[in-house]
Amino acid sequence: MTRETVARLVDHTLLKPEATAADVAALCAEAGDLGAFSVCVSPSRLPIPPGVLSPAVKVATVCGFPSGAHHDAVKAAEAAASVEHGADEVDMVVDLGLVKAGEWAAVAAQIAAVRAAVPAPALLKVIIESAALTDEEIVGSCRAAEQAGADFVKTSTGFHPGGGASEHAVRLMAEAVGGRLGVKASGGIRTADAAVAMIRAGATRLGLSGTRAVLDGLPS
């Protein structure tokens, strides 16, 4: 896998709470330089000011982040506001309490509420926090996301103490969605070898904060 090929799978990410507008501007400049697919920033950092981001780079943001413990209407409103402010993609955090309780209809209903608030062409990714789930819960979350009309399932916020992406979780998610949805691996991917392993396990998108270091480990 070449540097360019992997770069086009990357959501170049800055979600630190202390990130400033200047930090976001630097992220956007770096994304263009690296050839990343998108930047992913907090909703409060939208809209991206004109001229800061290359037209070739998409804008992603998060919703219900990082806990997922938000009311359906709050998540839907946050997602809709982000799209109004220029987001092309929204990464929403699933309600982990509902997942752990096995309340799959409620999980799907919440995802569907956000989907209705951000219809296509906006992309909706569902963060399932895979490191905190059993295999059965991972599969159930993926099925709920597909049922509700999501475009992607995503491993992690990167903020959960349980950890980030794993090859096992990515492989399980890829099998569950069977190519009908994308799979985003995010959280703790810091080397080229780790990034390639996630892609080989089935990831079709990567969430990276240390993008340059990962790409520097790949052949041109």
Automatic annotation (TrEMBL):
Pathway listed: Carbohydrate degradation; 2-deoxy-D-ribose 1-phosphate degradation; D-glyceraldehyde 3-phosphate and acetaldehyde from 2-deoxy-alpha-D-ribose 1-phosphate: step 2/2
Subcellular location: Cytoplasm
SUPFAM superfamilies: Aldolase
Gene3D superfamilies per record: Aldolase class I (3.20.20.70)
Keywords noted in UniProt: Cytoplasm, Lyase, Schiff base
E.C. code: 4.1.2.4
GO molecular function: deoxyribose-phosphate aldolase activity
Primary location recorded for the protein, binned into one broad class: cytoplasm
Keyword DNA repair: no
Reaction(s) this enzyme catalyzes, per UniProt: 2-deoxy-D-ribose 5-phosphate = D-glyceraldehyde 3-phosphate + acetaldehyde
NCBIfam families per the UniProt record, alphabetical: deoC
Family as reported in the entry's similarity comment: Belongs to the DeoC/FbaB aldolase family. DeoC type 1 subfamily.
Role of this protein: Catalyzes a reversible aldol reaction between acetaldehyde and D-glyceraldehyde 3-phosphate to generate 2-deoxy-D-ribose 5-phosphate.
Name of this chain's protein: Deoxyribose-phosphate aldolase
Organism expressing this protein natively: Pseudonocardia humida
Upper taxonomic lineage: Bacteria, Bacillati, Actinomycetota, Actinomycetes, Pseudonocardiales
